[in-house]
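Page 47, continued from p. 46.
Same chain as before, 157 aa.
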Amino acid sequence: MFEAFKNGTPVEVWQSLVQEAYERTGRRLDESSESYLVFVLLRYQADNLLLTRTQGMDWLLAMDLVGTARADALRDVGDRCLLVAGLFPGLAERRRVSVDYFIAVGRSAYLGVADATRQAYATLYAQLANGYRELVVTLDAMRRQSKAPVLIGSPRG
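Result:
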């Protein structure tokens, strides 16, 4: 996916790629959203099961949970939908749903986290939910700016 291999820590590499996406789109995320996006990329960079999950079903299962378990499960769904929508839009096509489906499920999951957590986290996740499409646009720009294989998940989407 990336034209040249980058040097540095994984955090530095992902931050550099996010910043290159800004140059491509002309749009910049706020600091909290950028940091969170880099965190998500780091967290899922070795997840070989990312593309095998059924996000809608995982969202429904998360809604049956309570407290921290619910918030954690919804956060995971929101994060995975974000990565699929931004980096693997072809997966939506293969599953005969739109990228907007993943955006809607992911945004809803983040709003659920905002409802289920303490105020500091609630504010962050509400902000992420409101800017969900911008996060997807940033990831999509990262995907489009390169030609090498994707570093997250398995097959390129």
